[in-house]
Each structure stands twice: as C-alpha cells, then as structure tokens.
Amino acid sequence: HYKSIIIPLMKLEFISMLERDNTRCKAKPFTLAADQVTPYLDRYIILGRCTGVNNSDTKCELVVLEWGKFKTFAYMSSKRVGFSNVTIVYEVLAKELADLEDLRANLKNPITVRPMVDIVRVEFGAFNAVYQLEQSPLLKQILDPMELCKIKPYPKCNIQYNGCDELNNRQKHVLLRTYRHAIEPTPNITLIQGPPGTGKSCVIANLVHQLLYGNEVRILDQKVLVCAQSNAAVDVIAEKLFDMSQTKSPDKMFRLIRFGLLERISPKVRLATLPKIIERNQIRKLKATCKNLQIDHKVDIKEYLRNEILQIEADIEHMKMNNVKNTVQEEVLLEKQRQIQLMRNIVNGVLRPEDENSLYNWHLKHANVVCTTLSSCVKLSKYVNYFDVCIIDEATQCTEPWTLMPLKFGINTLVLVGDTQQLPATVLSKKASDFGLGTSLFTRIQRCIESVTLKTVANADKGNNVSSLESTDIIFSLQTQ
C-alpha cells in the first residue's frame, strides 16, 4: 500500500526532473563503436568505445541511442577513461529493441549517442530505497509511526555526559535521551526539533562523540553515519568532529571520513576525505622507502616530487645505459622504478579503479564516523553496507524517499534533526506536491504522534509547559537561550 502511493508520486517528480535537466544539458552528440551486446534480466548491456570525444560529452547518465532503425533511451551504468579512448557501458530495456541476434548483426554499425540528462543515479537510488525498505529493521516504524509509541520506556539510569563541548541543560537533556535510544537493541526513530540558533549541529557532533566514548558502550564500537541534504550542513558537523578527533591520543582517536566529491567539500575538512587520507598514506610509504626525501608541511609536495621524478628518471636512464641486468645494481633499478611510480600516483592523484576500490573499501570499513550528503549515499553503498546509527540533519528539507536512502545500511537507530518552520523540500511536480511528496518523513512522524491526545508535562528547565510529546521519548525540542 505504501509503495502504491509513493512510487507514482516519485515517477511524476522524476519526469519533471528529466524535463528540467534536459534543457540544461550542454553535452554534444557523439559516435560509439559497439563491441558487444549481452542480455541481462529484462535488459541488454551494450559495451562500446569512442575516441576523440570531449570527456564532458560522455558524462551524461541518461542518453538516447540511435542505432540503425532502433532508437531508445539508455542508462550509462559505468565509464572508464583510457589513454586513447573511453569505454562506456549502457543499459537498455530489451522490449525497446529487436531480438538479440538482430542487435549482434548490427554491431558493425556505429551508434549515435545523444546526451539527455547528466545525473539520474541519485533518483534511481531513491526508488531503490523504497523497494528495499522491507529489508530495514525500521520498516514497521516507517510504515506506521504509532509503532514508536508502543516501545516500552527504558528503565531510568544515570548516564554521564561524555561530549567534548559544554552544552546547556536543554541540549544535554536532548542528547542524553537520544543516546539512551541509540544504545538499545530495539529499532527506533528519534526526532530533534529546533529553530536556527539552538545548537543542533553542536548537539549532533557531541551525540556522535557520546556514541563512541560513552561509559555505557565499548569505546569506538559504534559505526555512525551523519547525513544532510546539503554539503554545507555536512561540512559544519564534519568540521566539529574533525576538531574533536585531533584532541585524542593516537590509540583512542576515532576514524572520521568526509565522503563526497572533493571539489564540493569545504577546504576545512578536506583532510578527512579519502583522496587526502590515501595521499598521506602514500607519502608515509614513500618516506619509508626514500630516506633522503625532505617532505614537510612547509613544502609544496607535488612540486617537490615533480623535481624528484626528473632526477630519478635521469638515474634510471643512466643505469639502463650501463646495462645493470643480473648485477647488484638491478635491485636498485627496480626500487627506483617503484619509487617513481609512487611519486607519480601522488602527483597525478589518480589510482587504478581496482586500487581505488580496495583502498576505499578498507578505509570505509574501518571508519567509525562517515559524514556525507544523502545523494552520496548511493555511491557510498558500493563500499560499505552497515552502520549502527544514522543522524540526518536538515531532515525537514528533504522528501521522504531521500530520507530512506541511508536505511539500506541496516540502520537500527535513526535520528532526524530539523525545523518544521523552515521551507519544506523542493518538489518540481505540482501534482506530486499536492499529493504530499513534499512532506518530509520528519513531518509525517511528528503529525502522526501529535494526533494522539497526550497530557501536558512541566518543563523542569524553563518552568513553562511543553507538549507531553516528550513523554513518548520520540520528539525532543531545542530552544533558543
């Protein structure tokens, strides 16, 4: 029933997005030489190559393929840029084309590729999030938020605040109650509501610290995902967490990764991105093999290594001229070749796809905290498949399907942070908006809980009355001081 309501609205929005982005697409048509066609489920996989094409023209994920008498939409599932050509894999629905034998007979004919839309991967990720919802521990609570009210109150216990920053009484109260939820095995969702200036980002950062170092949990045992709709919101939290990590001793320092496109991330937290982490590891490895390197933070590393590469290349050329094969100097030559490859990797910042995958997998598997946007969760799922807790900031500013995207990581505790007084999610389709696609999961849960008649309780901090929603241990409010 849930799918039958939300999927049609998502399709309306998807079509509106395609219409808008198609008018913005500036990529030019190009020709693709088809190498092979392979059937897979309900589609055909077309592998092809193109040469002499601008890389910006081949980046579009949604295209139209014109192949002889056939014309159909296609989705670019992968692309690899080589030295002389670009290899691209497109997927098309089988029912849109002829049978397989006719297509294979058509391989000698070039394909005209007409770019349509740059990015559709994230929208597909939102559809997948809805289809995969039934595998989530939070399924019942998402479908019927009243299930949250059935969770028995946890026994009272004295929990000591173990954050890094000094919080006011209200912030500390909200943090500790939310933390109490997160350390329980029962799947649960918590809402933190607060207008601008109430310290939501500060509470989130210190909640993460509490989850990692609280007295009630094993140190660094939890794996936490922090998300938001925008890069700016993620960077604010990531910067606070990065500063916290630098205060720890090496044996107790938590591993933080800011995941996403490097150029869209604030320079203040780029040291926590995977490219920079990998670069630092490469430099450490290089220092271990090249004892004479003079690298420190005052030196332009890439410029320094370019000069070293020129010197080592001259040494290698000299050794080859002297024919050191089967001599003691042969091992020296091989070592210099390994050094120069390491230096080139650092200077160019380019890894082979298989090396990048293995390094990303390792670092993300061992990370304690990952900060990323909701849209980047699609790519993140290639490298890691589990988090204990997910905290989503700006939760009132994104549609429900986007909020569901992190649930593919098997999240047991979801914390939604936002302000219902701010503008809701942007929805392009008026019909989808009229039927409720613009309503966030945060707002839907809040309205559902508010529909229950609850008694009024006294706010011990302020002496005024607040809604007894707080007695349900689901919704907590931050207030300006």
TrEMBL record:
Domain DNA2/NAM7 helicase helicase: 166-430
Record-level GO BP terms: termination of RNA polymerase II transcription
Cross-referenced Pfam families: AAA_11 (PF13086)
Keyword set includes ATP-binding: yes
One of the record's GO cellular component terms: nuclear body
MF annotations from Gene Ontology: helicase activity; transcription termination site sequence-specific DNA binding
Keyword Manganese: no
Domain of life, source organism: Eukaryota
Keywords: ATP-binding, Helicase, Hydrolase, Nucleotide-binding
Gene3D superfamilies, sorted: P-loop containing nucleotide triphosphate hydrolases
Protein name as catalogued: Putative ATP-dependent helicase C29A10.10c
Organism the protein comes from: Bactrocera dorsalis (Oriental fruit fly)
